[in-house]
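Workshop exercise sheet. Pairs work together: one partner reads the sequence aloud, the other fills in the structure field after running the prediction. Swap roles for the next sheet.
Pair: D.N. / O.F.
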Amino acid sequence: MKIRLASLVSLVSLAALAAALPAAAQEKVLNLYSARHYQTDEALYANFSKATGIRINRVDADDAGILARLKSEGSASPADVILLVDAARLWRAEADGLFQPFKSALLEQRIPATLRGADAGQGSQWFGFSTRGRVIVYNKLSVRKDDVDTYEELGDPKNKGKVCTRSGSHPYNLSLFGAVMQHLGEAATETWLKGMVANMARAPKGGDTDQIKAVASGECQVALTNTYYLARMMRSSNPDDRAVVEKVGVVFPNQASWGTHVNIAGAAIARSAPNLAAARQFLEYLSSDSAQAYFADGNNEWPVVAGVKTANPALDALGKFKAETIPVAVTGANQSKVQQMLDRVGYK
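Structure field:
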């Protein structure tokens, strides 16, 4: 009897194990490499998993680190989806063959063609899911708004000794300068960049928040920043941040001409994605109204999908503006020529 009972227990255990194996083997996962360092995105990912049952394994690094990792892993990479935060970086990764094309009627309908990669017939290799403007902030006590309401005026002698920026080679600036090159042409853009160097109040350093603070403190008078950095300070409960915001004005440049430069945060499917269906589902989820609203309310970025309702007081306060309409892929493609210009004019 003992022998029979033991045998029965063994058979039951084996049956239970056999039943469990298919479930484990079929667990749905998504391997996400993300350069978005925003804690507010946690809920974005959690909502996707809750809605789909797909567990997200996330690797966080900066854009350069993610791209280096993808290159080193090659076809053995476990990455399914890549999230990057600039058009120049997305274009570079596409040029390096790190993505695969993805055709989706839903994304093509919801995301403007200017905010996604080029489509050679098999679909785009990346899609923008949120936007931010690259605006000019100025010291309200020492600068007239009319003297800094275009990008071109940053290189005008009237602003000599007033300008500060982060590194010219940072992708946020490379994308802006690539857009300006598309509008003005190569020769005029290089002349403009030379003028910006001559107008610097100090050598380029720091990030966008540092530029805003430098304008408020009087270290410089005029600076470039992405809108979401300013919006964060506008929504901050820190009295120091609020004091900075009170001292600076903001301009959406070139409203009378081509419009303010707009950049994106975007996503792509990795070239060797092992969980292709989950990757496709995740990208389409990012275009949903709920995810789009979260980009706005969670990280102060504008949705790319028209008509999405948001509840962000800082974005409301910044107001509506005319945005440029050239494809962001073009600005990314111009980065190599722009970098050569920066080297020639001494823009660090």
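Discussion prompt: The chain has a mean pLDDT of 91. What would you look at next?
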